[in-house]
Amino acid sequence: MAALDAWLVFEDEAGFSMTPPTTRIWSRRGHTPVIRVRGRSRRRLSVAALACYKSGEPSRLIYRPCPDARPDGRKSFSWKDYRDLIQTAHQQLGGPIVLVWDNLNTHLTAGMRRYIADRDWLTVFQLPPYAPDLNPVEGIWSVLRRTTTANRAFADPDDLITAVRRGLRQLQYRPGVLDGCLTGTRLRRQPP
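^ Tc1-like transposase DDE domain-containing protein, sequence as received from the core. Prediction below:
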């Protein structure tokens, strides 16, 4: 990457539902906390995120949410959504990108392959199948689920979207956490 003066960018997507993940909490002995939820909702929020690293630059996080209530009825990202996200990253980062992502079928479509081939500033590598431990964005999802969305009953889908965006925005201002997610993959040595 240093020879190319390129950003190393990892991509991953995750889904968040109205039913919150539960984590440990403290309470008085014999008084188990109870969160009442009005009803189960099948509403989900999909989010794609890019963790961006470059020597001498602070780590960056770029993300895009995709609520399941879209005009075309699609509940997940299309290849055009990924194209737009990569284009946004290129504009924000201002340099060539080496993109590392999984083997999601949307990443492998003919339209996406054409888009990648037509961009001399974009180089793409596929992660091996079933290798989430090599993707630092998985660590970002873990942090988000343990902090922002943990033990929280969402009032409606807009509340879920607001909470996830707030959590991701907070992570954008904490490059040390993003560096820690990369260090957790053991792809980069931790600084002395």
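The mean pLDDT is 84.
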